Amino acid sequence: MAVAAQKGDSEEFLALNRQLHFTLYRAAKRRHMLKIIDQMWDLSARYAHLQLQAVPDRASQAISEVRAIVAACRRRDREEVGLMVRYKVHQTSVGLLERMPPALKREGGRRGEGSKSQPPAGLRKQQGRRGRRGARTVSR
Known about the structure:
Elements: H1 2-7, H2 10-27, H3 31-43, H4 45-54, H5 58-74, H6 78-98, H7 102-109
């Protein structure tokens, strides 16, 4: 994913992102949940492309989040993996909602307004560098 992001290859980046997520979802062995997520993913694909264009640093943020997810997987910490996946999805949603025109926010985007969540512990490394919302970011 990092190479695709550096090259600006959003198609490859999004394909690898999907591969990562669905590897995790399949590991949960919840067939019906996987079908629902697959349908939702397909319906929201255009927004993933939009976000990579609208949020210049989203790819690098996503890579930091993926690294934290992989680290939690290596530790076999299911709780942390779940938390990190939910956080990653949340950050994607918030990033899009922040850039929505006000009229669209009133129609259905209210849940993300003003959402300034703190990153899970897996991303709160003492690197001394702060991200766009003041949360510590991971740089590797």
